[in-house]
């Protein structure tokens, strides 16, 4: 089996089962650790993205109230429920 040249290329390349089997025990553990780290990173990034989207929608709600839009329009605009919109309204 040809060795992969650098740590970075190992991270970028998803190993096939055959490639993983051909690694020695230490390299397999490193590959699993990198995979687990990437999974954790992706989960964290997804959570941060969702949090950012929610904060952005809350800002839209605040701006919509500043423009005197009816709650029905704000519901359609943000996808938030009336209760969520009222909660945001009460927070400012």
Please explain how this structure is put together.
With 92 residues, this protein is an all-alpha fold. The chain has helices at 7-12, 17-22, 25-66, 71-78, 82-90.
Could you list the spans in which at least 5 consecutive residues all have pLDDT below 50?
Answer: 1-8
Shape: rod-shaped
Helical stretch count? 5
Radius of gyration: 23 Å
Strand content: under 5%
Biggest sheet architecture: none
The overall pLDDT, averaged over residues, is 83
Order of SSEs, N→C? Answer: HHHHH
Give the fraction of residues assigned to helices: over 70%
Structural class determined from secondary elements: mainly alpha
Q: What's the number of extended β-strand segments?
A: 0
Terminal CA distance: 62 Å
Quick description:
This protein has helices at 7-12, 17-22, 25-66, 71-78, 82-90.
Annotation keywords:
92 residues; mainly alpha; 5 helices
Which helices and strands appear, and what pairs or packs with what?
Blueprint: H1 7-12, H2 17-22, H3 25-66, H4 71-78, H5 82-90
